[in-house]
Design brief:
The complex is a heterodimer of chains A (220) and B (302).
Chain A lengths: L1 E9 L5 E10 L4 E5 L6 H8 L7 E6 L2 E2 L8 H5 L2 E4 L11 H12 L3 H14 L15 H13 L5 E5 L7 H16 L3 E5 L3 H6 L3 E6 L2 E3 L4
Parallel strand pairs in A: 3-8, 3-9, 6-7, 7-8
Antiparallel strand pairs in A: 1-2, 1-4, 4-5, 9-10
Helix pairs in contact in A: 3-4, 3-5, 4-5
Chain B lengths: L1 H20 L1 H33 L7 E5 L5 H13 L3 E7 L1 H11 L3 H5 L9 E6 L4 H12 L4 E6 L1 H43 L1 H10 L3 H44 L11 H26 L7
Antiparallel strand pairs in B: 1-3, 1-4, 2-3
Helix pairs in contact in B: 1-9, 2-7, 2-9, 7-9, 7-10, 9-10
The chains are: A alpha/beta (220), B alpha+beta (302).
């Protein structure tokens, strides 16, 4: 599903964010991405979503090489990837429901069918009652769940979550991990960047540990 | 197909909402576009009216010879013979003073004036059609006839028709230049409006790109906005020109009444109106397209 081969990422100015990364994530796998902030976790996720390109090496996502992917092919790739951001990236000029509708509008789905799916996604994260609310009026945990609803509404094959439980207390974190677990059970490939030890103990799975841009241990 | 259509309709609705969301700014933009467009369109209306006024006049040159009032009938006939034999003259028409009076009464609604006359003030006249058409030949013929006895006035009739045509040609170029410049202004206004919109919606653009929106999805609302703004600007221009024509025609009616004749400004035909709206909507779309292609690629999610 996702394959890294000797991937380097160097930023202008010489900072080397990732160094000689090679690993593979198979379809339906759930993988933690751990390491201190600045270790390269976010960069790695950005490479998978083609937000950035590797400096050298190859990143294969569903058979497509991110290093050489054409600009026009990126939207189609991203529609297959659900992105969950640490800062949520919700749009505050529209309701929670309209935020979740956005990926479906982009995909050009039929409106009635889309509305049904958007409500199902909101229901899944427990926000159906707040569908008319503006995201700005939601709590941090609710915003995170809304972001998840938006990421899953068009049923992507891959979910990438950057610190999804980062600023949440353990009750909220558990709730969100249960949601992720349920996607994992229906075959979605999950990559969660985290440094939340409790979460990893409670929901054990393979972990890739990054240190200063390099992969540590034998978790390849 | 149908869901595509619905998606477009939704974008259209959202665009109208966005226009209404900032009513003052939208109103000002549309008014500016309307005023900019109304200048060349108003010029066009003026030209059209002038052309209608001049259309009834022949532009083939004629020379009118007005005989002195005391010329005897035999003198008049002798002058007619002399004219017929002249080498530079194609043919002549005689208009007697009584014919001329009758004609005047019928043509320009001066019946009130002429009815009050107790004698006919008009002279006998010959209308001369020269063989040659160029200005030099005409003028020398006029000068020659001027020296004949019993001819009170010799007038080159085509002169003012030519002048009018030259004036109209001049006006047409003025309108074309005005239209080109102000079209450019319209494109520039839209370019800037859209640029501001792109800047304020930067976050939204980034997010939609992250979710997998392609360029045409992101471009669409902005193109719609430019199109709609241009269209409304065109409607504003149409209203400005129509209202001005109406007002000016009221004033012209008074003027025309004084001359007992009918002068009025032409109004915009249906075809003219649709051309105006289509053109302004297209220019708005074009401005938006330039703006979008200039600014959108600069926004990539980080």
């Amino acid at each position: 599903m996702i394959q890294f081969n000797q991937v380097y990422k160097r930023y202008p100015g010489g900072h080397e964010a990732l160094r000689d990364l090679s690993f593979e994530i198979t379809e339906g796998e759930m993988v933690y991405l751990t390491g201190h902030s600045g270790a390269g976790k976010s960069t790695l996720l950005k490479l998978i979503a083609a937000i950035e390109r590797p400096t050298s090496g190859s990143v294969l996502v569903k058979g497509q090489n991110i290093r050489s992917i054409k600009r026009e092919a990126i939207p189609a790739l991203r529609r297959n990837i659900g992105l969950i951001f640490q800062d949520h990236k919700l749009l505050f000029d529209r309701s929670a429901f309209d935020n979740v509708m956005l990926p479906l509008q982009i995909g050009g789905f039929d409106h009635r069918e889309s509305a049904k799916r958007a409500r199902a996604a909101l229901d899944k994260v427990g926000l159906l009652a707040r569908e008319k609310a503006n995201p700005i009026s939601l709590s941090g945990g609710e915003q995170q769940r809304l972001c998840i609803a938006r990421a899953i509404v068009n049923r992507p094959a891959i979910l990438l979550a950057d610190e999804p439980t980062g600023n949440l207390d353990s009750d909220y974190a558990n709730e969100i991990m249960h949601i992720f677990k349920s996607f994992h059970q229906v075959g979605v490939t999950l990559i969660l960047s985290t440094h939340d030890e409790r979460v990893m103990q409670q929901f054990p799975s393979r972990a890739l540990h990054l240190q200063q841009g390099e992969l540590q241990g034998a978790a390849r | 197909m149908i869901s595509n259509l619905i998606a477009h309709l939704r974008t259209l609705l959202a665009t109208l909402q966005r226009l209404l969301h900032t009513p003052a700014a939208s109103f000002l933009n549309i008014t500016i576009i309307g005023i900019a467009l109304s200048l060349p369109v108003g010029g066009y209306v003026l030209l059209k009216s002038l052309q209608q006024l001049g259309g009834g006049l022949s532009s083939t040159p004629q020379i009118s010879l007005y005989l002195a009032a005391d010329t005897s009938a035999s003198e008049v006939a002798r002058i007619g013979e002399k004219l017929k034999q002249h080498a530079a003259i194609e043919h002549i028409d005689f208009i007697s003073r009584s014919d001329a009076l009758q004609h005047l009464q019928q043509a320009s609604g001066l019946a009130d004036v002429t009815g009050g006359l107790n004698r006919n003030p008009l002279p006998d006249a010959y209308i001369v059609q020269p063989k040659l058409n160029d200005a030099m030949a005409l003028e020398s013929l006029r000068d020659e006839l001027n020296n004949w006895p019993h001819l009170e006035q010799v007038q080159l009739d085509s002169a003012w028709a030519h002048r009018l045509q030259a004036l109209i040609r001049f006006g047409r170029w003025t309108v074309v230049i005005l239209a080109a410049l102000l079209s450019f202004a319209l494109v520039a206004i839209t370019f800037n409006t859209i640029r501001l919109q792109i800047l304020t919606r930067r976050e939204e653009i980034e997010v939609t790109k992250l979710i997998g929106a392609n360029d045409s999805f992101i471009r669409r609302p902005f193109l719609y906005f430019g199109f709609i703004q241009g269209l409304f600007g065109g409607i504003a221009a149409w209203m400005i020109v129509s209202a001005s024509t109406l007002l000016l025609n009221l004033a012209l009616d008074d003027l025309a009444l004084l001359y007992s004749s009918h002068i009025s400004l032409a109004s915009l035909s249906l075809a003219d109106s649709f051309t105006l709206l289509g053109f302004s909507a297209y220019l708005g779309w074009l401005g938006a397209w330039f703006s979008v292609s200039q600014h959108l690629w600069q926004i990539e999610p980080r």
